[in-house]
């Protein structure tokens, strides 16, 4: 923004004054004037011609810019937002013709744009070449031309120019209000236009960003430079803040009142210009003094700049301009970087021996803030001092800093022209002078009435000195009137006026006319009076600047855009320049996120970079724009769509004005945050009205589908892979066979051992294979459940199944783990290979679809091949290891079953029939010859020893197993109700006899009743309803049973049957008791039975105690009791 | 060990003759074959010893050896057949002592062609027919029957179709031999049948033990079964090598014929496809060491399965010797 006015002005105010270059503007102007064929006869004509001339000067640079734009335009083939600009240019063209009109006598020519444009183009070209020509011949011609020009100019130009002179920055409060307003507009216009220039450049750059891809390489530099700049700013701020206060206070305290000039109101007086004009007009009606008015206005007006000071006339303008210049220079970060801070001795030890007066931009800023500059000259001197210092110190012509310094000096030359020629003076002094002038000129200046207030400003003295200002001053307004288009056309002539005035200054300086008027014009300190003098002095003080660069500098003013000292191509440079700041900011933001020396770690405390709405909108806009551009390029048929687009676009931008729209120049891809489409809804962080975060996930939670972790057929369904089903069938088969095996081993065991125990054999009860599914899992994401331990467990289970399928009944956990790890790794590799083949770049087939390099089958086959497998292998596995294994298992199972059956009933084959009767149908040799002992393979009967085997041709003499039925029936059969053992029963077993109890005692045979009763009493077991039941020996638990009587080989029964120990003890106890009783009985025998009956009543209750002894006493007692009962 | 190379020259020549090489094989070739075979035997013994050690046993068992060749199912099948017949022979010898002499080396090939063990001339003795002995099946630890704790007696009716399938290769070989012997006169046939009995181990137990490095490679005294199996396997190796070498040579001859003209018209190496103008057998050049070398290289080519996970980096890794 600041650079723009400078550029625009530099056109009108061409080239830094050289001693001998002074003629240049002059000659150029002359040439243009003659070219136009304008007859410079009077002030009016001069003014218009000057305006026209100005216009053309301006156009020259326009042409340069325009050419570049045109290039860009052609490339991108779009009109992109340039309408406004074009319009403006057209307007200018129109105004140009309008102004030219009278002179060229083409009054009607203010209409159509295109021809005008062309005309202007011609002019531009001409102007360019003209410039160069003039430049080249300049030196020779100077004096003469200057003289001539001076002569010519003397007549009219001074007048024409003088009044608008201070122009641009001072914004003109003049006696002529229209002029002043026009003037203000003109400067405004210039600035605006230059802004536009810049904006357009940025736009062009932006467009190029869409077609070019820029990387981040330079961001770091940009960031560092930006940091430096910021630091500098801060530093300056810190150092000057204290001083500022002081000066500010001082300034206000010395408030000295003078005229109500706009000068001290600064540029902002623009806003009040009507008011001021009005007040000026009605000055006589206003009661207040000038002083009062001025304070009033200065208080009222807004946006008063920080430089403004009541008592220091001209300070605001000067400093504002100076600051702008400095900022502009500083912004040339590519070049300005070495000059930002003062040179430190550490960096360059000998610096201060060579450079006596160090200077840098930072110091200048500080000086600025402390109001150290009194005039433009001081400021410019300081600036040039920086560059010359650099050139001086870095004397090596190849030194990079030299290049930078030269560039900066060029820039400085361009920019300093913006600074008005102002010398800051104390108001008191000014006013004193003013008063003196007023007194002197009181009578002759009638026009003062027109602008009393303004005239009392800083500029007032000039008027006083001027010889014949009236006509000249009026001239522009007349010109304006003529063109009868009020505002816009005004701009040009007025611009011209101001600039031409400046030129006239040169002219005068050159011609050494230096009369009183000029002296007055440039106010008090004569040294600084004119820019010419300024320039000469300023430059003269640094001779090498002149020598090295003077001429080039002049040209570079015009050629700057093309003349890149850098080796970069233009686009890249534009990119760098335009986006520097934004890139720096972006890089800083990114940089902040990292910590550590080399930024290798994330800084977790740093707030995240967030997308901003504005940035998103910008992105959307850009997308739309690109789309619409494309659409335009394609066809106009999509008008509707475009319309819709544009409507959508406007709808979108509704919110734009509300928020601060930080317009970044960076392309989308540079800021990934804002360039990415929105997150899926489920991932968004949203808050409700109360500011609490809403758990988005809840909405998306779902149950993980079941049975993802079981092989599909194991859950009982018929689905699932055939292989899985087969394998599981095999495993079930194995379990069955193992069951049979366990029976066989049990039988064999019983054959070997004499005594078997119930708990000796573990029953083999295989559990069916059940694959446990995972519990309820809630997930919010698509795709498989990723839980390594879970998946590993699932794989482990599968591997375990395969182990089992391979015949391992059980296995060590470590073996399983190892196999699982191997399998996992192998599958990982398989998948990796699969991925590689799958992700081969696609190729285009003749169709429009992109096709992968490998078809799915190819992918699979290649992957298998890589993994050391092929289809044959797999098929072979399925065939051999699964199918054939299945049949084998079936065969083995049948064999096992047959074997078991043989073991149990060797003779009973299939032909034996259900009850084994058939076994005898073949002659029953086994039973006759004992052949059935074969299977046991032992000479049980000793036949072999006896030689019977040989004699009878028996081959097998072992005891048939089913002869050992007893043991087997009791132990094995009891718990294994196998089908083989129960098939022999065709008749239902008879109902067991009813147990003898107290209820059915009476039904028993009479003789036995007493016995049973006694037994009941002694050994009866209390049943359910008080029924006493006798327990059979067979029903007793094994250990309590009486051993069966066995006849020893001797045939002699030696000992009575042994009783269980407990019984014996109890019997013994009872015996003693009965002895006592018996004796008592004997004693009481004669007395009568009742006693005994009484006594004997007890036993039933004590029956448990009394054991069914077999001894004689027991029976005696038993014999007794029934009687006594009966007797009762 | 100075005369290492000479140790099995005759046997190898005989074996090669049975396998189809009719010419007079140079000692260079036989030496090469012998070295190859020896290397294979050493390797087998070493691995078997490792396996046994893993079980915690110092002596290797037949299972260890069979395990090494488990992937070649045809070979395993042949070996099992051989072993079972060996059992039969042994028990027959036990049952009637008289069967001695020719019992082991009976050389009676006419017994039962299908059931005969064709690889070695040591067919079952005559006595087996009338004895009640039946061919006992040799169980392998990875057979289904060993899944279970109980061993079940074999049934007659369940003939393993697998074994028959495996026998296909055996039958093929038998057929070849049959074709070859068709045109032989009695003398030639006698020579052929004598050659069929060539073995590294048969009645050369001591020599074989030395040669195979018992005591060095494996520090155990292997039992006879091991030696017999090794004898069988060495025979197999020589046969395989010879067949492969003959193929190599045929290809070479074909190439020569094509390029070098028709003066070498000896593409036919097999006697069973005699051409009218075949040169007499003696005129054919025998396989040379280079053919053997090429055959060996071909046989050593790793099969797909052994590339399992070969893409995992394993550093300086040498592919282990492949047992053929």
From TrEMBL, chain A:
<feature type="compositionally biased region" description="Basic residues">
    <location>
        <begin position="456"/>
        <end position="465"/>
    </location>
</feature>
<dbReference type="GO" id="GO:0005198">
    <property type="term" value="F:structural molecule activity"/>
</dbReference>
<feature type="compositionally biased region" description="Basic and acidic residues">
    <location>
        <begin position="631"/>
        <end position="641"/>
    </location>
</feature>
<dbReference type="Pfam" id="PF00439">
    <property type="entry name" value="Bromodomain"/>
</dbReference>
<feature type="compositionally biased region" description="Basic and acidic residues">
    <location>
        <begin position="429"/>
        <end position="438"/>
    </location>
</feature>
<feature type="region of interest" description="Disordered">
    <location>
        <begin position="429"/>
        <end position="495"/>
    </location>
</feature>
<feature type="compositionally biased region" description="Acidic residues">
    <location>
        <begin position="124"/>
        <end position="136"/>
    </location>
</feature>
<dbReference type="GO" id="GO:0046982">
    <property type="term" value="F:protein heterodimerization activity"/>
</dbReference>
<feature type="region of interest" description="Disordered">
    <location>
        <begin position="104"/>
        <end position="143"/>
    </location>
</feature>
<keyword id="KW-0597">Phosphoprotein</keyword>
<dbReference type="GO" id="GO:0006357">
    <property type="term" value="P:regulation of transcription by RNA polymerase II"/>
</dbReference>
<dbReference type="GO" id="GO:0000124">
    <property type="term" value="C:SAGA complex"/>
</dbReference>
<keyword id="KW-0804">Transcription</keyword>
<feature type="region of interest" description="Disordered">
    <location>
        <begin position="176"/>
        <end position="198"/>
    </location>
</feature>
<dbReference type="InterPro" id="IPR036427">
    <property type="entry name" value="Bromodomain-like_sf"/>
</dbReference>
<dbReference type="GO" id="GO:0046695">
    <property type="term" value="C:SLIK (SAGA-like) complex"/>
</dbReference>
<feature type="region of interest" description="Disordered">
    <location>
        <begin position="1039"/>
        <end position="1077"/>
    </location>
</feature>
<feature type="region of interest" description="Disordered">
    <location>
        <begin position="233"/>
        <end position="255"/>
    </location>
</feature>
<feature type="compositionally biased region" description="Acidic residues">
    <location>
        <begin position="441"/>
        <end position="451"/>
    </location>
</feature>
<feature type="region of interest" description="Disordered">
    <location>
        <begin position="510"/>
        <end position="530"/>
    </location>
</feature>
<keyword id="KW-0805">Transcription regulation</keyword>
<keyword id="KW-0103">Bromodomain</keyword>
From TrEMBL, chain B:
<dbReference type="GO" id="GO:0006357">
    <property type="term" value="P:regulation of transcription by RNA polymerase II"/>
</dbReference>
<dbReference type="GO" id="GO:0000124">
    <property type="term" value="C:SAGA complex"/>
</dbReference>
<dbReference type="GO" id="GO:0046982">
    <property type="term" value="F:protein heterodimerization activity"/>
</dbReference>
<dbReference type="GO" id="GO:0005829">
    <property type="term" value="C:cytosol"/>
</dbReference>
<dbReference type="GO" id="GO:0006325">
    <property type="term" value="P:chromatin organization"/>
</dbReference>
<dbReference type="GO" id="GO:0006366">
    <property type="term" value="P:transcription by RNA polymerase II"/>
</dbReference>
<feature type="compositionally biased region" description="Basic and acidic residues">
    <location>
        <begin position="254"/>
        <end position="266"/>
    </location>
</feature>
<keyword id="KW-0539">Nucleus</keyword>
<keyword id="KW-0805">Transcription regulation</keyword>
<dbReference type="GO" id="GO:0003712">
    <property type="term" value="F:transcription coregulator activity"/>
</dbReference>
<dbReference type="GO" id="GO:0046695">
    <property type="term" value="C:SLIK (SAGA-like) complex"/>
</dbReference>
<dbReference type="Pfam" id="PF02269">
    <property type="entry name" value="TFIID-18kDa"/>
</dbReference>
<dbReference type="GO" id="GO:0007124">
    <property type="term" value="P:pseudohyphal growth"/>
</dbReference>
<keyword id="KW-0804">Transcription</keyword>
<comment type="similarity">
    <text>Belongs to the SPT3 family.</text>
</comment>
<feature type="region of interest" description="Disordered">
    <location>
        <begin position="91"/>
        <end position="134"/>
    </location>
</feature>
<dbReference type="InterPro" id="IPR009072">
    <property type="entry name" value="Histone-fold"/>
</dbReference>
<feature type="region of interest" description="Disordered">
    <location>
        <begin position="254"/>
        <end position="293"/>
    </location>
</feature>
<dbReference type="GO" id="GO:0001403">
    <property type="term" value="P:invasive growth in response to glucose limitation"/>
</dbReference>
<dbReference type="GO" id="GO:0005634">
    <property type="term" value="C:nucleus"/>
</dbReference>
<protein>
    <recommendedName>
        <fullName>SPT3, positive regulator of Ty transcription</fullName>
    </recommendedName>
</protein>
<keyword id="KW-0010">Activator</keyword>
